[in-house]
């Protein structure tokens, strides 16, 4: 597999960890035994699940806030049990979803410049799972559509804008769900489960379109993700506990298109896929390396490219969307590797001599604009992602934010969403005027309190800065 010499512009991709001062230091990364990536990244923020006493919490740091993170740095801490998975909304860089052992999914709105106070009140709480929720995944093209999967073997698809569970797939999996992946336009999902099956499901018709029993024969966890061409890529273990990767065509799941054995390490392989370059990066939990492969139409279909190796094992991994990369440096991927006490960015680049924009490395990529509304998707409409050019770099500027804010239900109807939060979503029917008035009053009081808290904090900060200035001036 490694002896094949062939033409590929990605044969010389190399990875490099950033210098120490550009890492995020002194972070107590979560020790919970769960095989999720523990880290989510977008062009504004990096979010990391951390150890928290008496509940679950995660950090949200602006990308530029490198160096040592103070122990008193504010967290997102509304869950009553450990947080197991987090996912940034692809259509709003300030909205993040979290799933927890407390059986709930919460959706949070992060202030534009990051947190100044710990966030305990989510925009909406989504309750419907009877066991812990280990997977959350936003729809790639429809606004405010969120999928969650729990240890109750159920997958629920929510309209976050109304706080309602609109699709509940609770009878398709007989055993624990390891992971769920949307396809490129969000019309299908694929799942890997403890019963060793890989399933391709049409969630709106609530039917299994294709399935493969014993996709990998080993007992350890599998992963399955959709590729841009509709094929499914899986990682798992052989009967002899060797790590495997495989490529499947959902139209014929009898035999894999390709099946490769890798090594005998026991960490679960987390796949990260770039649809623009058809490269898959495999990060094993507990490994100290990232292997990457190119998927093509010619045999052996999955081509080994290279391995990035380091000394420290990884506890988790965040993967930056394409629009957050530095195109001037020919950066084609950026990972955020979690150590025991820090988060270390790793930059993957293709060496090029020219300083010009390399359009072969950066075809148009999925942008932050949703292709359709939640209601349209639930009614049966499909839409591919709206693509943007990275020729002049991607700037998450003010204009784009305003545009998203206008259209985004999470922002444009805060009262409706906070009501979901204040009056439990499941009790929405109780809409008597007295309850509404109480809720509004409660909401106003909370807002006044949070503004007062912010003012107090800013006052303290101003006085500290004034003291520092006085010292410097003296």
From TrEMBL:
<dbReference type="InterPro" id="IPR036322">
    <property type="entry name" value="WD40_repeat_dom_sf"/>
</dbReference>
<dbReference type="InterPro" id="IPR019775">
    <property type="entry name" value="WD40_repeat_CS"/>
</dbReference>
<dbReference type="GO" id="GO:0051015">
    <property type="term" value="F:actin filament binding"/>
</dbReference>
<comment type="similarity">
    <text>Belongs to the WD repeat coronin family.</text>
</comment>
<keyword id="KW-0175">Coiled coil</keyword>
<dbReference type="GO" id="GO:0007015">
    <property type="term" value="P:actin filament organization"/>
</dbReference>
<feature type="domain" description="DUF1899">
    <location>
        <begin position="3"/>
        <end position="67"/>
    </location>
</feature>
<feature type="repeat" description="WD">
    <location>
        <begin position="170"/>
        <end position="211"/>
    </location>
</feature>
<dbReference type="Pfam" id="PF00400">
    <property type="entry name" value="WD40"/>
</dbReference>
<feature type="repeat" description="WD">
    <location>
        <begin position="76"/>
        <end position="118"/>
    </location>
</feature>
<keyword id="KW-0677">Repeat</keyword>
<dbReference type="InterPro" id="IPR001680">
    <property type="entry name" value="WD40_rpt"/>
</dbReference>
<protein>
    <recommendedName>
        <fullName>Coronin</fullName>
    </recommendedName>
</protein>
<dbReference type="InterPro" id="IPR015943">
    <property type="entry name" value="WD40/YVTN_repeat-like_dom_sf"/>
</dbReference>
<dbReference type="GO" id="GO:0001755">
    <property type="term" value="P:neural crest cell migration"/>
</dbReference>
<keyword id="KW-0853">WD repeat</keyword>
<feature type="repeat" description="WD">
    <location>
        <begin position="126"/>
        <end position="168"/>
    </location>
</feature>
<dbReference type="InterPro" id="IPR015048">
    <property type="entry name" value="DUF1899"/>
</dbReference>
<dbReference type="Pfam" id="PF08953">
    <property type="entry name" value="DUF1899"/>
</dbReference>
<dbReference type="Pfam" id="PF16300">
    <property type="entry name" value="WD40_4"/>
</dbReference>
<dbReference type="InterPro" id="IPR015505">
    <property type="entry name" value="Coronin"/>
</dbReference>
């Amino acid at each position: 597999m490694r002896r094949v010499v062939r033409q590929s512009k990605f044969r010389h991709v190399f990875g490099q960890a950033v210098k120490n001062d550009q890492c995020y230091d002194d972070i107590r990364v979560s020790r919970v035994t769960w095989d999720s990536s523990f880290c989510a990244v977008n062009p504004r923020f990096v979010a990391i699940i951390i150890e928290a006493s008496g509940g679950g919490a995660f950090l949200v740091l602006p990308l530029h806030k490198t160096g040592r993170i103070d122990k008193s740095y504010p967290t997102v801490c509304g869950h009553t049990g450990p947080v197991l998975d987090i996912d940034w909304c692809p259509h709003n860089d300030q909205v993040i979803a979290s799933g927890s052992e407390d059986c709930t999914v919460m959706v949070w709105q992060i202030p534009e410049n990051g947190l100044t106070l710990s966030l305990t009140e989510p925009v909406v709480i989504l309750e419907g799972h009877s066991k812990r929720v280990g997977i959350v995944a936003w729809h790639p093209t429809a606004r405010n559509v969120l999928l969650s999967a729990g240890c109750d073997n159920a997958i629920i698809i929510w309209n976050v804008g109304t706080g309602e569970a609109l699709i509940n797939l609770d009878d398709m999996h007989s055993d624990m769900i390891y992971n769920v992946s949307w396809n490129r336009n969000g019309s299908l999902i694929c799942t890997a489960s403890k019963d060793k099956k890989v399933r391709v499901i049409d969630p709106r018709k609530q039917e299994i379109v294709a399935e493969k029993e014993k996709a990998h024969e080993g007992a350890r966890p599998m992963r399955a993700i959709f590729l841009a061409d509709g094929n499914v890529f899986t990682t798992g273990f052989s009967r002899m506990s060797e790590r495997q990767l495989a490529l499947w065509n959902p139209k014929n799941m009898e035999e894999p298109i390709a099946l490769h054995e890798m090594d005998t390490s026991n960490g679960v392989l987390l796949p990260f896929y770039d649809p623009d370059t058809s490269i898959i990066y495999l990060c094993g939990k507990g490994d100290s390396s990232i292997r990457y492969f190119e998927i093509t139409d010619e045999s052996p279909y999955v081509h080994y490219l290279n391995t990035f190796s380091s000394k420290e094992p990884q506890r988790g991994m965040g993967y930056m969307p394409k629009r957050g990369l530095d195109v001037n440096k020919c950066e084609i991927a950026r990972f955020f590797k979690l150590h025991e006490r820090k988060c270390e960015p790793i930059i993957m680049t293709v060496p090029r001599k020219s300083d010009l924009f390399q359009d072969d490395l950066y075809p148009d990529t999925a942008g932050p604009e949703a292709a359709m509304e939640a209601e349209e998707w639930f009614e049966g409409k499909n839409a591919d992602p709206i693509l943007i050019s990275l020729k002049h770099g991607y700037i998450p500027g003010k204009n784009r934010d305003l545009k998203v804010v206008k259209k985004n239900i999470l922002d444009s109807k805060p009262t409706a969403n906070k009501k979901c939060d204040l009056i439990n979503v499941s009790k929405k029917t109780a809409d008597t005027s007295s309850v509404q008035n109480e809720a509004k009053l409660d909401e106003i009081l909370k807002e006044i309190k949070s503004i007062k808290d912010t003012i107090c904090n800013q006052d303290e900060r101003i006085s500290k800065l004034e003291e520092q200035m006085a010292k410097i001036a003296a």
